[in-house]
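Researcher: Please translate sequence to structure tokens.
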Amino acid sequence: MSNVLVELRQKIDEIDHALLELVTRRMNVSREIATAKPSGSPVYRPAREVLLMHQLLSQLDGTAEHKVVERLWRVLLASSVHSQRPNFKIVSFYGLEDFTSEFSAGFLDFTFCSTGEHIIQQLSENKADVAFFPYSQLAEIASSLGEKTGIYVNHKTDNVAIIGKNMPEETGFDISLFRDSRFVESSIIEKPGFRLDLDGSEHIHIGAWVNLSGSLK
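Model: Translation complete:
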């Protein structure tokens, strides 16, 4: 075996040990956060995760590196949620199996529902901490979202609406979501900004998502 190959493998070993130390430190801090958080604080913060991933991926060039970092940090983030709340539960719409499995990363429990009504029921009865629903079908459950029910869209990614029982966080890159109360059939209205005022009580705020692209998609 050449000296060059031996030296390269030694470098890999050194990097692996350094990574192990950093991962262990991160997990320990995550446990400390769980202890320090006020009771009832959300353990999963979609907006924070979006901004974190954006910061990390913006430092990379290659597509291959993007995929590695996305999957590695998905494992770290899911394990962090699990360490703070081991019984964290996801309810997801049938058809989102791949998204849900990747998101849970083997750490978070999930189940599937065939109707939006059932998903809202699971959230309302605190049988799930977060729900995944096709964003393109969001109008079907829009009447169940907003201040009256306390259920909001907290983010949108890969055409999946991430829904939970906490207000979305303001980031400065927000697209606010409203439904028009004047119509029986809900229509979703997207507006840049956080909780942008629209025609008084006719428009009900139902959530927001982080828009780092600078355009509506």
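Researcher: Any highlights?
Model: Residues 1-31 form one domain.
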